[in-house]
Amino acid sequence: MLFRRRKPLTFTEKLREHLWPRKGFVRGFQYFGKRLVRLAASPHSVAAGFAAGIMVSWTPFIGVHFIMAIVIAYLIGGNVLASALGCLAAGNPITYPFIWAFTWEVGHLILARDGGDQSGGIDLPALFHKGDLLQIWDPVLKPMLIGGIPPAIVSGLVVYALTYYGVKSFKSRRKARLMERARERMALAENASGV
Q1: According to DSSP H, which parts of 77-141 are helical?
Q2: Minimal CA–CA distance to 163: which of 27, 26, 49?
Q3: Neighbour-count burial for 122-133, b at 16+ CB within 10 Å, e otherwise
Q4: What is the DSSP letter of 111?
Q5: How far apart are CA 70 and CA 115, in angstroms?
Q6: Is 127 left (phi over 0), alpha (psi -120 to 50) or beta?
């Protein structure tokens, strides 16, 4: 194989590389940002799609985040790939516990409930095993869904503005560089033909 290591990584080296990359996490975030601004779409489309993915990540419906983000992005004229990137950026195994705890607390504040009003607690595995969504709705899903609305709106607006202006400035700088290169090539071609 052309690009294979001479000495293969051991299992512990592979595990360490997955948990903490040698070049750090910053490189991954930089790649993610560059991938977002280089999408072949208008700044509004990229920003709307990315914001849709971020907003959907605040909902408790984990299995359908991508589908919800794609539908919302389509309805508001956003880029579908940007919506998927937004889901990946905001909704991942690292951020979900914080999102759930925050939406749970905000939901209970909005509904004016005490978070510990459950006398015996909730047996979530048993409720999910039974598949009875009506029993899960009131104690779990309703507060998380209602509690997710305010942070989803705020984060969606902030992310839309930042992404829109970031993509717009990147595309205008890129266009200016391409125009400058085209002028240089035209000048070289004119000089070469005139000589």
Answers
A1: 80-90, 96-110, 124-130, 133-136
A2: 49
A3: eeeeebeeeeee
A4: T
A5: 33
A6: alpha
Q: At residue 123, does pLDDT exceed 70? A: no
- Residue 167: phi, psi to the nearest 5? -65, -40
CA 30 to chain centre: 14
Q: What is the DSSP string of 127-195?
A: HHHHT-HHHHIIIIIHHHHHHHHHHHHHHHHHHHHHHHHHHHHHHHHHHHHHHHHHHHHHHHHHHHHH-
- What tens digit of pLDDT does each residue of 40-57 get? 778 888 899 999 999 998
1 band by pLDDT with thresholds 50, 70 and 90: low
CA distance 2 to 172: 39
> Nearest CA to 99 among 108, 112, 109, 90?
90
Rounded to whole angstroms, the Cα distance separating 183 from 176 reads 11
Domain boundaries, the chain: 41-112+130-172
Structure-block tokens of residue 13? 């080296």
Per-residue model confidence as pLDDT tens digits over 136-151: 776 677 888 888 889 9
The count of residues in the chain is 195
Tell me phi and psi for residue 96, to 5 degrees.
-60, -45
